[in-house]
């Protein structure tokens, strides 16, 4: 069968460690030398033409539907595929053009709500108590996930060198951990904006419950509609949603939202190589409209917006560890997730979390914190970056 022969050629080059593959007709083939690190079981024939046209999408859907099973560590297997230059993920013979995705305000709202409005109760099942759904910051090996998420928030605020009484805007504020920390621990007047109804309701209720009306404000609104200026702007895990065609406008809007010599801390997933920036499977099932810009793209847009760079910090290993903990937490609640959302939904999210961890582990993607100034770099910041680490220690970042 020609499909099987082609599969053997593809799989032979796709992993830089030995694996076993059991094909749909029962034949098992060992690839590589030594003991296998995993076994791929193909219960059904997935046509080669579909793999060539849409590699990640086709394999992702086959895994969700149970046509493909993995015995062994799924994250490790995907990491190997990313690391192999001849794998179907990296070989240009299997690349494809990704359709453009609209990023109008209406479409952006629908995209965000399709992901974040699954329900707060879903995320509560496997996130930590801070309800923070972005890369944590592990300052020590003993940090719990909750410790590391609070470390991340304080690390961000410390980089800004924010002073009591100043104003802060958080674009894409999530469930508000950064907002409430900024208000309660740093004395800032904090404003958040989100397109998620569930997140907006959660933050609004918490503002009232904690008596912070007037000090913390949240808007259910597109950030592009904001008019006020702020001393500081933060945006965590946001620019991945705006789309390639809107990145220039995103950084330009940050410039508009800052007072002169104000500072911004932009934290987001960033490629450190040139590539498509889009994964078809994740785009269809997890983050509609998502696009991962590379470092050069962002720097170009930052300069075009007349912002200046004060500091760059890659946090790749931190996001890998964050995702690995989320995966363990997700596995711990597998029965609850399956009973509520179904087996296919569970397999989809399990693949998403482990594949993302693999992508960070392999260096396929990174996450970077960009500290920016409106105006000449570091005008209102101390002369050396040691202020960040002194402030981290003072604020309890271990």
UniProtKB/TrEMBL annotation:
InterPro entries: CFA/CMAS, CMAS, DUF7884, SAM-dependent_MTases_sf
All copies of domain DUF7884, residue ranges: 6-93
GO biological process per UniProt: lipid biosynthetic process; methylation
Active-site residue numbers: 356
UniProt entry keywords in alphabetical sequence: Lipid metabolism, Methyltransferase, S-adenosyl-L-methionine, Transferase
GO molecular function: methyltransferase activity
Family per record: Belongs to the CFA/CMAS family.
Protein name per its UniProtKB record: Class I SAM-dependent methyltransferase
């Amino acid at each position: 069968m020609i499909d099987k022969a082609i599969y053997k050629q593809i799989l032979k080059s796709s992993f830089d460690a030995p694996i076993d593959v059991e094909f749909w007709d029962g034949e098992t083939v060992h690839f590589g030398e030594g003991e296998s690190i995993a076994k791929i079981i193909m219960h059904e024939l997935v046509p080669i033409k579909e793999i060539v046209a849409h590699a990640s999408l086709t394999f992702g859907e086959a895994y969700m539907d149970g046509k493909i099973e993995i015995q062994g560590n799924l994250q490790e297997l995907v990491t190997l595929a990313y690391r192999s230059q001849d794998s179907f993920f990296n070989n240009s013979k299997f690349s494809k053009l990704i359709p453009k995705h609209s990023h109008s305000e209406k479409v952006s709202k629908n995209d965000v709500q399709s992901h974040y409005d699954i329900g707060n109760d879903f995320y509560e099942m496997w996130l930590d108590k801070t309800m923070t759904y972005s890369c944590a910051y592990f300052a020590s090996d003993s940090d719990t996930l909750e410790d590391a998420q609070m470390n991340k928030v304080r690390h961000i605020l410390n980089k800004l060198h924010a002073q009591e009484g100043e104003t802060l805007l958080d674009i894409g504020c999530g469930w508000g951990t950064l907002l409430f920390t900024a208000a309660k621990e740093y004395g800032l007047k904090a404003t958040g904006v989100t397109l998620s109804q569930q997140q907006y309701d959660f933050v609004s209720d918490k503002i009232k419950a904690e008596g912070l009306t007037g000090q913390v404000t949240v808007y259910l609104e597109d950030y592009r509609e904001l008019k006020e200026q702020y001393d500081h702007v933060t945006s965590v895990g946001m620019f991945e949603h705006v789309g390639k065609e809107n990145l220039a406008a995103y950084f330009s809007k940050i410039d508009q939202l800052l007072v002169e010599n104000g500072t911004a801390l932009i934290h987001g997933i960033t490629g450190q190589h040139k590539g498509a920036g889009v994964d078809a499977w994740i785009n269809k099932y997890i983050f509609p409209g998502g696009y991962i810009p590379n470092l050069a793209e962002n720097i170009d847009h930052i300069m075009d917006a007349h912002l200046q760079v004060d500091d760059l910090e890659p946090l790749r290993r931190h996001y890998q560890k964050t995702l690995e903990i989320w995966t363990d937490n997700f596995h711990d609640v597998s029965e609850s997730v399956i009973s509520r959302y179904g087996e296919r939904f569970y397999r989809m999210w399990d693949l998403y979390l482990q594949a993302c961890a693999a992508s960070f582990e392999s260096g396929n993607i990174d996450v970077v914190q960009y500290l920016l100034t409106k105006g000449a770099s570091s005008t209102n910041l101390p002369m050396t970056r040691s202020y960040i680490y002194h402030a981290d220690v003072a604020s309890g970042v271990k």
